[in-house]
Write a structure and sequence with these properties.
By secondary structure, the protein is α/β, with parallel strands linked by helices. It has a single domain, classed as TIM Barrel (Alpha-Beta Barrel). It contains nine helices and twelve strands. A ten-stranded mixed beta sheet has the order 1-2-3-4-7-8-9-10-11-12, sandwiched between helices. It has a two-stranded antiparallel ribbon with strand order 5-6. The protein starts with 5 loop residues before the first helix and ends with a helix. The structure holds S-adenosyl-L-homocysteine.
Length: 301
């Protein structure tokens, strides 16, 4: 743009960028799930996943490079935490997905790499942009934020009036068991998380999902199911049982007790579904592609 001053042009060059990320690889699974590996302008990598359901397309977006919380079962935290994504980098994941697929994405889940509520301000700005009628016009009701359970941020989110759906990765019904698999459990207790979820539901009238990853011999016995059932019996929460997607260099295995676990919850009157696992053949679990890429490239994060 030569019709503006040199000084303004240099200012714009310093402040703005056109492409903050580029598609590095796209993997398409047998079930048509697409996994995008994006290269950021500083050489880091992140991932997004596009899941095709019968009546909708859902995009799973990342909010960080790496993850601070290093849950033992998850590939995202394996290389440590690198940095938060900018608002642009969060939004641009969807931009590339929509441009490439030429289809309308209706649902967004913040379940990619990182902890969305730990990048709170950028997440909120990104949601504002993604839902704007002049951009992607995504319905706020069609957005789900998944968190390890950062209680103060859950309450802050409840106060925004954004009214997005909340999903909490509980994965264990007691603090002792949760601490064995999630380092964040020492800071955020199960009771404080349930309390924050109840408040979120009251204030937003939105559905709260309890995510429970079933890991063989770790958190999948009947006693765990009964404890979880008692914990959330009258809450009205919805439980999503997640089949564990095995990752390299981690001894955790997929549970074979999914149905038995589900039946115990159902008998307590809890609404429970088993997550329809997608993209298993293309390393669909959070952070798997990125970790593979870091290994291939040696030092590059
Ligand atoms: N930090 C957020 C969002 C990212 S992870 C959170 O923890 O909720 C999104 C979901 O995928 C979480 O429930 C997480 O526990 C789960 N997950 C992580 N690794 C997984 C794996 N290998 N197989 C299946 N689910 C996994």
């Amino acid at each position: 743009m030569t019709n503006i001053s040199k000084m303004d042009r240099s200012k714009l060059r310093d402040i703005f960028t056109f492409n903050s990320l580029n598609i590095d690889e796209v993997h398409v699974g047998k079930d048509k799930t697409e996994k995008y590996l994006f290269k950021l302008s500083d050489g880091n990598y992140i991932e997004s996943v596009v899941m095709n359901y019968e009546n909708r397309i859902s995009a799973c977006l990342s909010t960080q490079v790496g993850c601070k919380f290093a849950c033992r079962f998850c590939a995202s935290g394996k290389g440590g935490f690198v940095r938060h994504l900018t608002v642009g980098e969060i939004v641009e994941q969807l931009y590339h997905i929509v441009c490439r697929s030429k289809r309308k994405v209706k649902n967004i889940v913040f379940m990619g790499i990182g902890e969305p509520l730990d990048n709170y301000d950028n997440l909120i700005d990104a949601i504002d942009i993604l839902t704007h009628f002049k951009t992607f016009n995504i319905g706020k009701r069609k957005i789900t934020v998944s968190t390890i359970g950062i209680t103060d941020k859950i309450l802050k989110l409840a106060a925004t009036q954004l009214n997005v759906k909340l999903a909490v990765s509980l994965h264990a019904p007691t603090d002792a068991l949760r601490r064995k698999i999630m380092s964040a459990a020492s800071k955020y207790t199960v009771d404080s998380i349930i309390d924050a979820c109840i408040k979120y539901r009251e204030r937003t009238k939105k559905r709260v999902t309890i995510e429970y990853l079933l890991i063989d011999g770790v958190n999948d016995n009947d006693a765990n199911a009964y404890k979880l059932a008692k914990l959330i019996k009258h809450s009205g929460f919805y439980v999503n049982l997640i089949p564990y997607n095995e990752i390299p260099n981690c001894s955790f295995k997929t549970s074979v007790r999914t149905i038995a676990f589900k039946n115990i919850l159902r008998d307590y009157g809890i609404t429970v579904e088993i997550r329809n696992s997608k993209g298993d053949d293309i390393e669909g679990a959070c952070g798997q592609l990125r970790i593979g890429k870091i290994k291939d490239n040696g030092s590059k994060k």
